[in-house]
Write a structure and sequence with these properties.
Number of strands: 0
Order of helices and strands: HHHHHHHHHHHHHHH
CATH class: Mainly Alpha
Helix content: over 70%
CATH architecture: Orthogonal Bundle
Shape: globular
Largest sheet: none
Mean pLDDT: 85
CATH topology: ABC transporter involved in vitamin B12 uptake, BtuC
Low-confidence stretches: 1-6
Radius of gyration: 20 Å
Number of domains: 1
Structural class: mainly alpha
């Protein structure tokens, strides 16, 4: 590989970072009350032209944007990690029931048990995500053909439908809980403060560290279990570490923005395309960071579109992402090599 090709991955990361920075400025600038980008930049550096602009930027828009970055990165990493661990291109926290499991556990904790604090119900989110992922995996293994990508996806859809129905049933018993759940289930970053972002950062940081530490082993795992074992990889430990990372990342994201589907499905595929264009290949030491950069871009872009097209109200970011991800998922299922599995 030439020296010029070696710098291309770094340039790709820098380009994605620049795109994310632009989206952050737009996310802070656009909304029911739009703020010119130059005033946004001035406000960020402590020179806001008015107290109103300062309050809008720091009290509402900055926490919302920061939450989009953190939650988006968590969901993108979760999707890339799940696809690598299962060798399933259809894997996604939303499709395989992980997000639905976390949502059900949160609603159960809040609506039935009476847990009111974030640090109380976030542990239920982790437990729900873990139980749902194990259940989907066991259902996907049933039958003579064993575990296949399409069977795993169908098992995820079935578990998601069941848990979503149970979640709605619990929410319907409490009008106040139902009112909150309507926005939570659609995937929203609205009405969140800086304290909420700070609460989820430790969980996402630990999950990210675990995910990135898995990257070399994921490259070996892509060659098959036998090859990976012959290379000295401890497969059980790798999968346990991966499941812990997915549980932390998905549970933390769902606890604050709700079950946003398809980000974990779309982003890793786009990351692979960009990696091929950059000459990186299927190296998870690059694919995971690329996914962590691309996912916030997608989530913030969806949030911006939702705020602009329905102004002065807004369409929830999860709805916009689902509008994009639904056709993408159908196209993936219809691909010849998947439909024949």
């Amino acid at each position: 590989m030439t020296r010029s090709r070696r710098v291309r991955p770094t340039l790709l990361v820098a380009l994605l970072g620049a795109v994310l920075a632009v989206l952050c400025v737009l996310s802070i600038a656009l909304g029911a009350a739009s703020i010119p980008p130059d005033q946004v930049v001035r406000a960020l550096f402590g020179h806001a032209p008015s107290r109103l602009v300062e309050n809008i930027v720091w009290s509402a828009r900055v926490p919302r944007t920061t939450l989009g970055i953190a939650a988006g990165a968590a969901l993108g990493l979760s999707g890339a990690l799940m696809q690598a661990l299962t060798r399933n291109p259809l894997a996604d926290p939303g499709i395989l029931g992980v997000s639905a499991g976390a949502s059900f556990a949160i609603v159960l904790a809040v609506g039935v048990i009476g847990v009111g604090s974030f640090h109380g119900y976030v542990w239920f989110a982790f437990a729900g995500a873990l139980v749902a992922s194990v259940l989907v995996y066991l259902l996907g293994r049933l039958g003579r053909s064993g575990l296949t990508p399409v069977k795993l996806a169908l098992a995820g859809v079935a578990v998601t439908s069941l848990l979503s129905s149970l979640t709605s049933a619990i929410a319907l018993t409490d009008p106040d809980a139902l009112d909150r759940f309507r926005f939570f289930s659609a995937g929203s970053m609205a009405d969140q403060d800086g304290a909420t972002v700070l609460r989820i950062l430790p969980f996402i940081a630990v999950g990210t560290a675990l995910a990135l530490a898995c990257a070399p082993a994921l490259n070996s795992l892509a060659l098959g279990d036998d090859v990976a074992a012959s290379l000295g990889r401890r497969l059980g430990l790798v999968r346990l570490q991966g499941v812990a990372a997915v549980t932390l990342l998905t549970g933390a994201a769902v606890a604050v923005i709700g079950p946003v589907v398809f980000i974990g499905l779309i982003v890793p595929h786009v990351a692979r395309v960009l990696a091929q264009l950059a000459g990186i290949g299927p190296d998870h030491r690059w694919l995971l960071p690329l996914s962590a950069l691309l996912a916030p871009c997608l989530l913030l872009a969806a949030d911006i579109v939702g705020r602009v097209v329905a102004r002065p109200t807004e369409i929830q970011a999860g709805v916009v992402v689902a509008f994009i991800g639904g056709p993408f998922f159908i196209a993936m299922v219809r691909r010849r090599h998947l439909s024949e599995v």
